[in-house]
């Protein structure tokens, strides 16, 4: 049998052929997952059973081919919680924690202990679960259309002790979906926002993620235009909309919000210094709320 140290060096070399920068991290994650050991190299001379070694080599080869590490592992961490992921659902990203933080700041500032929140394009449910964890008295709705993503959404809400999140299968671009939820304190969404050009230049890893969760129209803004128009009557007067978006889209998203009667637009940067999210207050009176 091969030792852990020998196998690690072998697999690291395989992955490094594609990406030297992430080879150590990727190999460590694969070892941790398949060996069930958080510090797999603490015992480098420990022998690895042949069947496990074969599995580890197989994952290393797939990673070297550009298959997402998160899909290989079948799970990924977000906001301190583990989320099941696989083909058919968008991989949670650290940038999205900025959106969660902005919503939580709104709740603290406005003293909202039990807000009614709708997470549109919920995907894996990472935003909905994170908010429910931090706001246990909140009434949280997660709206998702994709059957594949819904499967992960249901698993993740249950596995993270958030089985009371209301899961709705629906198209966020349909008026009937928007009409099914009213009186929202906060509408939050990380919708598809990649442009046509972005889609033509995707990294290999990202091509494995569902295009429906990535492509936001020619300029990447289709969902913001449609959702803001359709859902503004679902947000109560004084309530908030909070969006994540791509690099350089902040001015356009701000303009869309203001055109639809939202004010006090607050832009926020992610950990990399990129303006990543916007939150705005609804000031439009409507008989539909």
TrEMBL record:
Domain Release factor glutamine methyltransferase N-terminal: 6-74
Entry-linked InterPro entries: DNA_methylase_N6_adenine_CS, HemK-like, N5-glutamine_MTase, PrmC_N, RF_methyltr_PrmC, SAM-dependent_MTases_sf, Small_mtfrase_dom
Catalytic class of the enzyme: transferase
Keywords assigned: Methyltransferase, S-adenosyl-L-methionine, Transferase
One GO-annotated biological process of the protein: methylation
GO molecular function terms noted in the UniProt entry: nucleic acid binding; peptide chain release factor N(5)-glutamine methyltransferase activity
Domain Methyltransferase small: 113-202
Superkingdom in the source lineage: Bacteria
Protein's UniProt keywords contain Transferase: yes
Reactions catalysed according to its record: L-glutaminyl-[peptide chain release factor] + S-adenosyl-L-methionine = N(5)-methyl-L-glutaminyl-[peptide chain release factor] + S-adenosyl-L-homocysteine + H(+)
S-adenosyl-L-methionine among keywords: yes
EC numbers, comma separated: 2.1.1.297
Cross-referenced PROSITE patterns: N6_MTASE (PS00092)
NCBIfam families: hemK_fam, RF_mod_PrmC
Protein name, as recorded: peptide chain release factor N(5)-glutamine methyltransferase
């Amino acid at each position: 049998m091969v030792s852990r140290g020998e196998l690690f060096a072998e697999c690291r070399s395989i992955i490094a052929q594609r990406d030297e920068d992430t080879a150590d991290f990727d190999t460590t994650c694969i070892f941790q997952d398949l060996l069930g050991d958080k510090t797999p190299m603490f015992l480098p001379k420990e022998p690895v059973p042949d069947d496990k070694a074969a599995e580890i080599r197989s994952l290393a080869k797939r990673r070297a081919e550009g298959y997402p590490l998160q899909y290989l592992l079948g799970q990924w961490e977000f906001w301190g919680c583990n989320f099941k992921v696989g083909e058919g659902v968008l991989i949670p990203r650290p940038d999205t924690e900025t959106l969660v933080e902005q919503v939580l700041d709104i709740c603290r500032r406005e003293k909202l202990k039990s807000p009614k929140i709708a997470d549109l394009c919920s995907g894996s449910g990472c935003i909905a679960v994170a908010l429910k964890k931090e706001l246990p008295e909140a009434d949280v709705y997660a709206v998702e259309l994709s059957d594949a993503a819904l499967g992960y959404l249901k698993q993740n809400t249950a596995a993270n002790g958030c089985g009371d999140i209301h899961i709705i299968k629906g198209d966020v671009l349909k008026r009937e979906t928007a009409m099914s939820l009213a009186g929202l304190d906060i509408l939050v969404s990380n919708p598809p926002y990649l442009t046509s050009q972005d889609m033509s230049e995707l990294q290999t890893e990202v091509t494995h993620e569902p295009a429906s969760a990535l492509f936001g129209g020619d300029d990447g803004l289709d969902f913001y235009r449609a959702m803001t128009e359709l859902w503004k009557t679902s947000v109560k007067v004084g309530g908030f909309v909070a969006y994540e978006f791509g690099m350089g889209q902040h001015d356009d998203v701000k303009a869309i919000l203001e055109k639809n009667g939202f004010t006090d637009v607050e832009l926020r940067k992610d950990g990399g210094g990129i303006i990543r999210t916007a939150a705005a207050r609804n000031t439009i009176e409507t008989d539909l709320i």
